Amino acid sequence: MTTVAAYAAPAAKAPLERTTIERRAVGEFDVLIDIKFAGICHSDIHQAREGWGEAIFPMVPGHEIAGVVSEVGRGVTKFQVGDRVGVGCMVDSCRECENCKAGDEQYCVKGATMTYNGIGKDGEPTQGGYSEKVVVDENYVLRIPDGLSLDVAAPLLCAGITTYSPLKHWGAGPGKKVAVLGMGGLGHMAVKIAHALGAEVTVLSQSLRKKDDGLKLGADHYYATSDPKTFEELEGTFDLIVSTVSASLDFGAFLSLLKTRGALVNVGAPEEPVSLNLFSVIGGGKTLAGSMIGGIAETQEMLDFCAEHGLGAEIELIDAEQINDAYERVLASDVRYRFVIDTATI
């Protein structure tokens, strides 16, 4: 066991505070990672404040982890000391079910072990990346290519794969019209990735205040959803809409923007149930779908793709003592576009 410094929420809705936690001893197939940077995801806030249901406290959030290997177990073959690595939203799964064998570990039938707010196979709660070090089985560790600096790579471990996976699955590419709903931590990466895949990209945002940024990041068009004319002008336009927002939507209005047999895929997760008139799906043979992160192999594919195309997150680097302020700023949409903690300040 190793004692490390961390920032934890001691209880639901309580401010995060500096503390210490225990990391398990490095096992045969484990990798010890010195964490250099940890992204702040809206999911961290949902969970630390129990927006998605009962959670485990004290909680060390953080599933956008980038660092350097400092020790490996004797059975480890994939990594060595000094390697640049990342850890995303999960740190284990059953490895035996149909989904795990298909490379969809995030949909493990028995439930993947999440990086924090989960229970590991040892029965202990998992703790995330707002900390100095983490121990992870080598099969759930990603290699960060040399072309990506660790600070801008960290958010790719959630925001990158969460948007890359549905864009790939629903065929974003040349000749396809793709809309990204929401221009935040997830949305800005969706724009970059969809553009790099060759799609014609439109941003749908509440206002036009981030329009210059959106066009700079690769969007071809930018519309305000607060303007009713947007829905008239864009009716029947898109092959694919990726919704990155975690607020409740008028799904009928957004489904009307799809072409026949188009898909609206949700990666943002509102805390409240949503309502839907099914005729808005039936009428055009449309798909309303969801997507959650990606498997380990696909996450590595995403990292390699981002390195090849020079895609890192747009970040604001903060000290650990600024975490609580950063949470409030995320909720106020006051970040362009991802807070990343310099874990040397923990």
Structure description:
It is a single chain. The strands form 4 sheets. Strands 3, 4, 5, 8, 9, 16 and 17 form a 7-stranded mixed beta sheet that branches. A 6-stranded parallel beta sheet has the order 12-11-10-13-14-15, covered by helices on one side. Strands 1-2 form a two-stranded antiparallel ribbon. It contains 11 helices and 17 strands. The model has no long low-confidence stretch (mean pLDDT 97). It is globular. It is 24% helix and 26% strand. Helix 6 (211-217) links the parallel strand 11 and strand 12. It has 346 residues and is α/β, with parallel strands linked by helices.
Features:
seven-stranded mixed β-sheet, 26% strand, six-stranded parallel β-sheet, 346 residues, alpha/beta
Proportion of helical residues = 10-25%
Order of helices and strands: EEEHEEEHEEEHHEHEHEHEHEHEHEHE
**Main β-sheet: number of strands, strand sense, barrel status?**
7 strands, mixed
Q: Any idea what the shape is?
A: globular
Mean pLDDT: 97
* Structure classification: alpha/beta
Distance between the termini: 19 Å
Say how many strands there are.
17
Radius of gyration: 20 Å
Instruction: Report the β-strand fraction as a percent range.
Output: 25-35%
Q: Give the uncertain stretches in residue-range form.
A: none
Number of helices: 11
